[in-house]
Amino acid sequence: MKRYFTIGMAGHIDHGKTTLTKALTNVDTDRLKEEKERQISIELGFAPLYEDEEIQISVVDVPGHERFIRQMIAGVAGIDLVVLVVAADEGVMPQTREHLDILGFLGIKSGIVAISKIDRVEEEFMGLVKEDIREELTGTVFEDAPLVVVDSLSHKGIEDLKELIIHTLKEQETRDVKGAFRLPIDQVFTVKGQGTVVRGTVYEGRVEEGQTLTIMPKGLEVKARQIQVHHKPAKEAFAGQRAAINLAGIAKEELERGDVLVSSEHFNVTNTIDVAIRVVEDLDYMVKQRMPIKCHLGTAEVMGRIVFFDRNELKEENGEILCQIRLDEEIVAKRGDRFILRRPSPQETIGGGWVIDPKGQKYRFGDKTIAELEMKKVGTPGEQIVAALMEAKSLSLDDLITRTSLDRDVLIEELNSEDFVLINGKEYTLRALIEMNEEDLYNRLRDYHTEFPMKQGLNKGELIQEQAKLYPKLLLDFVIEEAIQKGTFKRKAQFITIGEFEPHVPKNWKTRTENMLEKLKSDEMMVQYFQDYLAASGIPDAVVIDLKKFLEEDGQIVSLDSQYYWHGDIFRGAVAKLQAGTGTEFEVGDAKEILGLSRKLMIPFLETLDAKGYTTRVENKRVWK
User: Fold this and answer.
1) Looking at residue 71, what is its pLDDT?
2) Could you write out the DSSP letters of every residue in 159-219?
3) What pTM was estimated for this model as a whole?
4) The domain containing residue 222 runs over which residues?
5) What gap in Å lies between CA 570 and CA 537, rounded to an integer?
6) Which of 69, 305, 480, 496 lies 20 to 30 Å from 169, alpha-carbon distance?
């Protein structure tokens, strides 16, 4: 499948991030008037960088000014690679170091250093500049990152940087497009004539036009009316892409940065998270027990308090600290999510880490609680199995042993839980994945029935076409068969439908169709062209094909040829009359005498008898079967 990535431009104010972004993408990401006037980036700026059949890459230009550090955190939290822009004439600045700390806490592992403004430094000094930058980056995520020398105005080194970005990302794993959709919202606005639009980076999963979604933590249901990726309409958006989604059913005032757009209710809404944190090396102030902090997770920025269980204060610490964050407001979080902690006043980055348990409880102070958090940090066998299956969707027992390194007996015992399901005696999956896929397939069928009420349903291949890009066929087959057994779905010949669905003429054409059938029946066997009946009843051409097919499949009309149709009752009456008036076989003349039909309709009628299996033609006679 095609893979999608977002890269970030980070660094000190006035080191040339926005200019470099423009040189790479030919897009000016400074869009606000005050940004132009002050020549700094206040909001996140996004631009498309590269696309081919294999990957699509977007760029986010992250604000560099200290006052706008919260926007930087919101932007960086959704990216896969960071280009650290360092001006050749200034080097690594204090604010750059804070950005580096944040990148480390957020788990960014992939980076490139772009040395900008090289026209301000003599060429013979560039070696010293690189050496100085390399030394300043020791111990950070950019310690071994490649250095690229660029000049955004002359475009020197721009193509080299672009090629390095593309090559690096092609070697990198992408985000999970198979899981439930999640997009932390970083911008909310309205478009005249369209309504409310939200924008953000798709953290995981995928979303498609028309899909019903939920705004968390508020629990508001919305519909994705339209999707855009870099100002271009798109039917769907995938993990790693920047997306703008036009939402139906909600006003702009009901939303804010920090809300999360999701496709599943399995995401946790919480105000207490158990966490593992690290702190910056040079804290200016002591961190004390239950001290107010500002927590940045995804695009959310929430006040709270830090709760220690093995200390009452903290100034210097090189290792990981297990503790708890109790927030003043609810957020959406899951195990493994990264976050940043900042002191609200005086402002400074304290540290950051990852969520061990999004549903933290109240614990006693002491070593026992730390031991319990250590166990949580490693993860229970069940959590490890869930993590493996969320990634792979279904795995055999041997594959699960390989992925989790759990003992076979422990694994088998854990798999007895109702959370896990054995598919056809071959592979295990999660009950949650089965339920999620059943819901998606149900919604697909429901929408299809609404759009095409006269059609029998979808064949299995069409039904699972989109899901098959994300899930193994073994799993999807199981979901469908289980739903059929429960009565949620129904199989009719090769078609799958919702259990309660029956093909039907939609209400707006029902009366006209009944009038047309009544007229057709009243003309008995001496019918006009079928198109004349349709036209006289005011049935539009747009529905004729589906209507004829439905009425034929339902036995209400019978086609003699492409032009003449009989009412189903008339056709069946003619067959019965002909059978009663003949023996085991008959000739055309016999039929004509019994039914009184002209040759124009007699020949098509007899050929229809052959086609439907009533008779077999033998030379000039027809034999009843």
Assistant:
1) 60
2) HHHHHHHHHHHHTSPPP-SSS--EEE--EEEEETTTEEEEEEE--BSEEETT-EEEEETTT
3) 0.63
4) 182-262
5) 20
6) 69
